[in-house]
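User: Sequence in, structure out. Go.
Assistant: Echoing your sequence, followed by the structure tokens.
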Amino acid sequence: MSRELFSDEAEFGVLGAILLKPDLFDEISSRVAVADFHDLESAALYQVMIDCHAAGVPIDVVTLSDRRQNLPSGKPTIVHAGEVAMSVPSAANWKAYARVVRERAVLRQVVQAADVIRDQATDEMPLTEVIAMAQQATADLRDLDDDGQQDYYKASDILTTVVDTIDAKYNKTIPSGVSTGISALDELVCGLRPGNMVVVGGLTGSGKTILGLQITQHVTCKLDGVGLAFSMEMTKEELITRGIASIGSVNLSALDSGDLNDDDWPRITSAVSVLNKAKLFVNDQAGMTVARIRSIARQCQRREGLSILLIDYIQLITAESNSNRSLEVGKISTALKNLAKELKIPVVVLAQLNRGSTNRPDKRPRPSDIRDSGQIEQDADVVILVHRDMESEEGQNGVTELIVGKVRHARVGSCLVQQQGKFVRFVDFEGKPPTSEEVEMGRPFASQYRGKKA
């Protein structure tokens, strides 16, 4: 291994700083791990220091030797610790030593990752995947230059910002969250908040994709935001065609078949004008990994800014390995939650539900019905379940319940919306509340839809 990939002097400097000034241990151990050491003797000595500190034993040459007499090579601990202490004249430069140790450790990891990437490249892996692996491998380099960063904050230092935000929300000068475009849903979730992972779950055909796309279109077309939509089911052309149908109130079937009326064209022209101005970006590549999604999203945020990210849907994201499916989906979920925090925007993640709810008397889904991994429910800040009972008369006529089964900053509840299937969109429900008789019969809203079809 190249000499430039490690520094024995810096490793000695870190250990010597602790021996000279033991009260530096907490700060140093928060920056440097045992695995960051290249020299096995120094790594072993650092581990002994950690063990002593954990046991409440003062750290010095004698206590270290008492804790472990010999290092892996057989060299007495007291001898190696003594050499370290004598080679470091001062603890003043400990930050520089720690930075070098951490930096060289990351560089070694990058070299190792490069070897893996080179092997994958020769196996004819797609170029986009090779690039994504390289970006993921070097991501830790972004965190190296953190000496000036504050690791914790006093409450009083944060209060001014928080109170200013509360005041601005009270005076309606800033929104409490990004609007979904559906007033009843906004009242429940109080908007979609930056850094939140919003899971929209539903059975096949329930309308979860309609809701996800409609929210993204609202942010980009009505609120002048920037949106990026990943669809692993539909093509980019299908996504935009749905946008024309939804925004222009044009029958989707007519757009697909070309059987259009003369009065459809002005509406198409109007929708095209809106979408042409919108900063809505789409990706329809199949087999996307989280690393690739993260790479594209960060690239889009740097170039365009980003207000919302949509992923349709989580169970179609390709896992990095072939291990247990539940564990892999759980890792994907946590990575998407971390991405929301990193980008500081709402990330709307669509998810399939299992069919457990269909066996219940009321057929209403719960957050625990999300398929493949319970980790998705745990990671989510908001869970919205799209429920349309097609066996009921109201469901056949498009009445859909949006069940907010989890929300960290508001109350759980539900609201009714009307699904306009031909326009692939939801609108606010304007029907009358169900009568007590209809509720008891298990057929709410039946009187309003007698004789109608969707």
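User: And one key feature?
Assistant: The first strand starts at residue 197 and ends at 202.
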